[in-house]
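Example S7 (structure tokens).
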């Protein structure tokens, strides 16, 4: 089967242990998580998990359904790269002497739309925001020039390209059902 990179976006209430339950779904199916980012969402009390994994469509559908069934999960959806806007951030620590002795390094940094955020006598730190391929290309270019001491990148952050957040519709529907059930109780 053709494997491709999928992004699963999970919305949940913030309860301890849920991250373990979510990652266990991937472990049981022998799927490696490429990146994982967990943060507060735009909805008070709701957290957003952004998970990427290489797999096929059938498997990602099953994984998403399993995650959706977890008690504290409000909603889980999977997306391909053309259905989301995604970004990462990376930091590169470079030996200051290499940067000073090689004027091409500054050109490489500018060419890749990165910026130097820290300089001291021993090292400098370069920051790059962008998609995964851009971050990897800058790392490769800096590595060829030598002097890369450390490299770190964040997990993917993503939002859908649609005009609405699916979890908002889910929560509005849930609130309406709750309101109707309360009205029904009062009328009985």
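Recovered sequence:
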């Amino acid at each position: 089967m053709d494997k491709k990179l999928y992004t699963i976006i999970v919305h949940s209430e913030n309860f301890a242990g849920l991250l373990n339950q979510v990652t266990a779904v991937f472990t049981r199916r022998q799927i490696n998580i490429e990146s994982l980012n967990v943060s507060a969402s735009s909805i008070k009390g709701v957290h957003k998990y952004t998970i990427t994994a290489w797999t096929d469509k059938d498997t990602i559908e099953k994984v998403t359904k399993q995650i959706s069934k977890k008690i504290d999960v409000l909603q889980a959806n999977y997306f391909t790269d053309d259905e989301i806007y995604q970004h990462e951030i990376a930091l590169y620590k470079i030996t200051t002497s290499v940067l000073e002795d090689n004027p091409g390094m500054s050109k490489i940094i500018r060419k890749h739309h990165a910026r130097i955020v820290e300089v001291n006598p021993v090292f400098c730190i370069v920051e790059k925001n962008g998609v995964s391929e851009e971050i990897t290309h800058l790392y490769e270019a800096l590595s060829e020039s030598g002097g890369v001491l450390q490299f770190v990148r964040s997990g993917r952050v993503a939002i859908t390209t649609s005009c609405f957040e699916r979890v908002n519709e889910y929560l509005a529907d849930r609130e309406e059902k709750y309101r109707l059930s309360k009205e029904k109780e009062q009328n009985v």
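Notes on this example. Helices lie at 18-28, 57-68, 96-101, 103-111, 132-145, 166-187.
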